[in-house]
Each structure stands twice: as C-alpha cells, then as structure tokens.
Amino acid sequence: MAVRNTSDTPVYFADLQLVTASFKTLPPQKADSVIKRTERTDLRIPFGPAVCTPQRLPDLRPATVVARVRTGSEPLRTVVFPVAHPDPLLAKLLRDECSEFLVRQAVDIAFGQDWTESGGAMRGSLVLTRRAPGTVTLEEMGGTTHYMVEPEHAGRPLAVMDASVPTMRVPIALTPARCDAHAFAEAKKAFLFPVRAAIDGGQVRVVTVVPPEPLQGRLIQYALRACGLGR
C-alpha cells in the first residue's frame, strides 16, 4: 500500500487489512507505522490465497484497504480506502494463482525422486500424476535465475499425457545458469521453475514447480562443484 502525506501532521497506522472477494481475507496485519510528510511510503499488507473457480479464470473483484489510523493526537479510527479497480497487481496475482489452480485440478506436476549427476548435468525427471480426466500437454519448462533446463528429448511439446495414462515421467537435465558467488548467497528464486501446460488443448497456463528441500540441497552442491566454487 503506497501512502502519501502532504501535511506536517504525522499519521499513525496501527494495522492494515486487504478486503476483496478475490482473495481470502486475513486478520488485520499490525503496521505500527508513523507516516510523516512523504511523497510515498510503502506499507506491507498480507493477503490470503486466491478464490478460484473450477472451470475458468475468475474476474477480479473490487478491493478495499481497511486501516486503523490516528492523525496527530486524535484517537484511533477505522478508515476504508478503495483500491482503484481493476488493480493491475491484484489482477496478475489472481490470474497467476488461478491459472495454476486450473492445471493442478487435472494433474500434479512434481520433481521425481531419482536424480544423478552425469555428463556435467543433474539428470532426473518431472513426474505427472493424473487427478482428473483430460489430455495434458506439457509445452515447456523454463529455467530459473540459477538453473537452466534442458529436456532430454528435443522438440515441443515436452510431453503429451493421454487421458488413459495415469502417470508419466518427463526426463530433464539441469545445469547452472550463473556461477558468481553472489548468486548462491541470493538464491530466493533459484528453485521456482515455471512449467507451461494445457488441458484438452485449452489455454496454456503456467504452474510453478519447486523441488523438495533435500533435492534443493543436492542441486546447490552440484552447482557449486560445476562452477568450481566448492568441493
């Protein structure tokens, strides 16, 4: 939430809450912030998971920010701030989360358990497990800030999982995308792999696939060795 105060009177924000039918409403988040004269100060507001629908992407619903504030020495009062509709950030968050929801209704996409280091790469597979009827087309798997993805079999799509197939393995290889030491210290998005998939020839949607923590540790050690930064 961007706050601007053009007066010399400080405004105290006790707590904040995002309220919209598009996301689960969480309890008010403590802000405990005094906003003096400023062109812009950003305050963090957590929000719950998106409210998705089973057949299509939902439309973004209007949102408000409910805050308890105090101006100067006045007592605390509740103020409701309308959010300009449609807010582009909320629209993107809703679209991304519900796109993933639609794919995951039909299929679970996860890293397989068996990974080995071979030929300078870490080799393993994505495992597709059916949850509902429909043909699943795995278009591509993108890399991250730290790892490049190389399918073991060239061409697109990566795989097509017919409606009669309960599970499928898609072989992939991972190699380091960068080798500077700073990269390994700032690896917040190293394991958020985007996978593009479609159900029954429908719209291609993005699912974020994250390897389990034990595999993350192995991938870090492999990348350090491959980059000559560790043993």
Task: Give a topology summary.
Elements: E1 2-5, E2 11-20, E3 29-35, E4 38-42, E5 63-71, E6 77-82, H1 88-106, E7 107-111, E8 116-118, E9 121-130, E10 136-141, E11 147-151, E12 159-161, E13 167-176, H2 181-185, E14 193-199, E15 205-209, H3 213-226
Antiparallel strand pairs: 1-4, 2-3, 2-5, 5-6, 7-9, 8-9, 9-13, 10-12, 10-14, 11-13, 14-15
Key traits:
4-stranded antiparallel β-sheet, 3 helices, alpha+beta, 5-stranded antiparallel β-sheet, 231 residues
What radius of gyration results from the CA coordinates?
Answer: 23 Å
Structural class call reads alpha+beta
User: Outline, from the CA principal axes?
Assistant: flat
Biggest β-sheet strands, sense, barrel: 5 strands, antiparallel
| Low-pLDDT sequence parts | none
Distance between the termini: 45 Å
What percent strand?
35-45%
Helices and strands, in order, run as EEEEEEHEEEEEEEHEEH
Q: List how many beta strands DSSP finds.
A: 15
Residue-averaged pLDDT: 91
The level of helicity is 10-25%
Question: Counting H and I runs of at least 4 residues, what is the number of helices?
Answer: 3
Written account of the structure:
The chain has helices spanning 88-106, 181-185, 213-226, and strands at 2-5, 11-20, 29-35, 38-42, 63-71, 77-82, 107-111, 116-118, 121-130, 136-141, 147-151, 159-161, 167-176, 193-199, 205-209. The protein has 231 residues and is an alpha+beta fold. The model has no long low-confidence stretch (mean pLDDT 91).
Gist?
The chain is an alpha+beta fold. It is built from 3 helices and 15 strands. The chain has helices spanning 88-106, 181-185, 213-226, and strands spanning 2-5, 11-20, 29-35, 38-42, 63-71, 77-82, 107-111, 116-118, 121-130, 136-141, 147-151, 159-161, 167-176, 193-199, 205-209.
